[in-house]
Design a protein that fits this description.
There is one protein chain. The chain has 17 helices and seven strands. The protein has a five-stranded mixed beta sheet with strand order 3-4-7-5-6. Strands 1-2 form a two-stranded antiparallel ribbon. The radius of gyration is 20 Å and the shape is globular.
Length: 338
Amino acid sequence: MISRMGVVTSLFVRKMIAATGDGVDQNALLTSIGLDPVSDTNVRTMVAASAYYDLLERIADQIDVTDLPLKTGGSMRCDDYGALGLAFKAAPTLYGSYSRVERYARLWTSVVQYELRSADEGTLFIMHRTGARRLGLRLSNEATLASAVSIAREVCPVGFAPLEVHLKHSAPKTIRHHQRYFGCKVVFDSDLDALLISDAAIKQPNRIGDEGITQYLIGHLEGELTKLAHNKSLEELTKDAMAHALSEGLPRMEDVAKRLGLSVRSLHRRLAEEGLNFQSLTETTRRELAEGLLGDERYSLAEIAFLTGFSEQSSFSRAFKRWAGDTPATFRRSLLGP
């Protein structure tokens, strides 16, 4: 079954805990999530994303977390991200920097994928993360976009602020912290989690862009991607990409191919060579994801319909009954009891 939450690097966990200040027992929080308080940070040490969200919600029970993700994001530096951070710094422009994140961030997390998309007003740097909009996920999303701004400010030769910040979830009681940190309009209840960046800013040469270093680092990162890909079959990789894309609607082959770094023709050919069909894989992915989510009572049926690519709960219910022979509600009761 597809992992519905995945993992994140412990670097993010440690940074978030460090930003809490003296209001919580930081060592106890680290220990509770299986991290050694006295060991050095290792970006390759992973933590289950669901455990990370639980941790953030426990922190929220102890202190006001309104500006916690902004403090966390603001503390991030390129060097924290290892080779990816160096590639971000060495890219010739900010567009090149964010392109590195779009392609290589999967080395550090399996729950977020990024996309650069042209817009009328500039370029959108979009963060795709599936899952119900629980508090822990919302805080993580805000910290992620705040960190994307922090490292951009590190490489830009002039002051950087996006034109707008978009967040899918509703606003906290006050948004003054967000407006002050981002330095622009912050749109909550949006249809995207994204930064909107002006053409002038994203085309601005970076402070220390170096083509030679860039090519060396890209070679290293491509090697790491290859190792990662070899640990999963094409079927698994395709289904993972589909699962990430489903909250945006029914996945298209060109979108899935892009997430895998392949052309549409290459993906179609490779699937055919393994006796796989894109449409049937989509159906299987939707069913497996739905069954996994139905086993977690925190997700409503409406949320599960959305996360599996259905525009209406009734359409999801009909499809699920066709797949499993039971309605989603009946299937859930069989897993969880009355």
